[in-house]
């Protein structure tokens, strides 16, 4: 009788434990029904159509290109898939606080971090593709909009503004491959249509005021980091010890306690050696008091290329001129070049490069106090992550772009006055053009780096700030 009662109690306890576990972290049958209902919601179905139509078009173009373009496109597809799951979670959850919102956005932030990681380090031939795709993913942050006071634009405006940042690099892809490879052009156009009109129209149709959270759903709590293990408790006094605390304090101390006792009392100088007259510095004959110049120079002038790598000026694979880590070189020259080759200048300082002949494109990356003189460029001349650069175009250049650069002087010839100049996150950009007459001085124009935005007639009107040198 007692054994049967014990078995019934044990089975009841197991059932209660399984039920409590299911409510805490598992999925009950009701939860599964909620997931099915959320997945069949019109907004979720429409989002799936958005992914199939627009992301599918970008992926199809990327598969024809392959390589890093396909890698970054797969991450874009993953990011949109993650947002679809977040939208389903929104319909099942209550509006979270800041900590809960950060926990909610963790999966999306992780995917965006993967895309950003591909753009870091040495620039590849597909850098513009990588930056366009990675920067565009910030548009997915519209789902974090919680109200007018949350510090971000309304969802529709946020999508449009995010694409404007990515479009800077998308346009570079269009310019570079306009007459070279239609697959790259298709990829850039498909990427833009994914956001404008794709994502923008979706947000406008279903979430113009941000995500709609469930008032009766479950709460999103931030995951608790595992607590650090507590330090081990001090060894307990022996239960069988007959000594009192006063008696234990009178015992001789050991370890560091003994050291502190020695320093705080007693004969501190006991055991120290006495300094004799011949041991004093002023009486030593082996010391001259003069610091060795060789040792000083070795400390003051470390190896110039210990961190940046060896200097390089070479043609790689017959397509790309690499000019890297040149410091203090005023006579760098590239003579034998053609219109199918590109020039990539990286990590140079206080140097001057002359490019004699027509090349496809030129990129100046992470250079300081660098001067470049070139004749003609077919696609574009790019300056990125630089400080104090002077560039002179003696022929023609259809596009000149300056990105994340402080201090840039552009000298344009008469043949290059119709060049399209784009700037982003840059300051102190001055363009000098020839005077009207052959003997006239150069005329300097400063490009605006400050803008005024005024909300008028339902939209913002942007005007550049005037400069005295303009």
Give the topology, please.
Layout: H1 2-24, H2 29-39, H3 42-65, H4 67-90, H5 98-118, H6 127-136, H7 155-177, H8 182-206, H9 245-249, H10 256-264, H11 293-300, E1 312-316, E2 320-324, E3 332-334, E4 342-346, E5 349-365, E6 368-384, E7 387-393, E8 399-403, E9 406-411, E10 420-424, E11 427-433, E12 443-446, E13 451-456, E14 459-464
Parallel strand pairs: 2-4, 3-5, 4-5, 5-6, 6-7, 6-8, 7-9, 8-10, 9-11
Antiparallel strand pairs: 1-2, 11-12, 13-14
Helix pairs in contact: 3-4, 3-8, 4-5, 4-6, 5-6, 6-7, 7-8
Protein name: Adenylyl cyclase-associated protein
Organism: Crotalaria pallida
Region (Disordered): 218-255
Stretches where pLDDT is under 50 for at least 5 consecutive residues are: 18-33, 235-251, 262-266, 287-306
Globally, the shape reads: elongated
Could you tell me the radius of gyration in angstroms? 34 Å
Structural class: alpha/beta
Residues in helix, %: 25-40%
Q: What is the beta-strand fraction?
A: 15-25%
Q: Please provide the count of β strands.
A: 14
Mean pLDDT: 78
Q: What is the number of helical segments per DSSP (H or I, 4+ residues)? A: 11
- The N- and C-terminal alpha carbons lie at a distance of 101 Å
Strand and helix order: HHHHHHHHHHHEEEEEEEEEEEEEE
Structure overview:
With 470 residues, the chain is an alpha/beta fold. The chain is built from 11 helices and 14 strands. It has helices at 2-24, 29-39, 42-65, 67-90, 98-118, 127-136, 155-177, 182-206, 245-249, 256-264, 293-300, and strands at residues 312-316, 320-324, 332-334, 342-346, 349-365, 368-384, 387-393, 399-403, 406-411, 420-424, 427-433, 443-446, 451-456, 459-464. The strands form 2 sheets. Strands 1, 2, 3, 4, 5, 6, 7, 8, 9, 10, 11 and 12 form a 12-stranded mixed beta sheet that branches. Strands 13-14 form a two-stranded antiparallel ribbon. A hairpin with a 3-residue loop joins strand 1 (312-316) and strand 2. Helix 4 (67-90) packs parallel to helix 6, helix 5 runs antiparallel to helix 6 and helix 7 runs antiparallel to helix 8. The longest helix is centred in the middle third of the chain and has 25 residues, at 182-206. Residues 18-33, 235-251, 262-266 and 287-306 have low confidence and may be disordered.
